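Model it.
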Amino acid sequence: AIPPASLKATDRIQRDLETYFKHHGWYYDRRKNSYKNLGMPVDKIIGIPYLAQAVMSILLREPDNALARPSTLIKNDADYKRVFSEHIGFEVYYFCARLMKQVEECRRVSFPDYKTEIKRNLRYHVAMAYVAELLGTTDYKPSDVQGLVSKDIDIVRLEDAIKNVVELFVTFQASHDWPVDRVTKSREFVKELCQGTL
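Modeled.
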């Protein structure tokens, strides 16, 4: 079976994204492991599914869907067009990739005591919460994120976002008695998160 991402690899927007990322010293892996096999640094390699999940979480404010159906974001044509749109600037895609990588680095270095499952499943929610906090609203639009792309990622505020999301997660899980996986893939938790973020 051919992975869904491979079927989209030759789309014009995918080729243009690869060029844009390379211009900024990052590597957009349209063909899985192509840059890894060339010896490029792993922390600067972004795959199509990875970027799709980042965009779904950060721009479209759907971290639950990013986590629950990663392959569908590319396989389903309607979702694909929402995520990979000519109306979204390449600099915004680049911002989403950088932010997601920074979230992963920050949770690993600054919060080593959190359970791995919690850190892994909440990364998309953290990225959304960080952007919402910067913009001052959880009801932002993709175009609103444009104003953030030229700014450095604020590590202190990102750490605060991690703490806030984890605290809200613990409270939500305790009141619902759901496993981690169910909480983080639920729309109910995202709504609770939006109410508690600002």
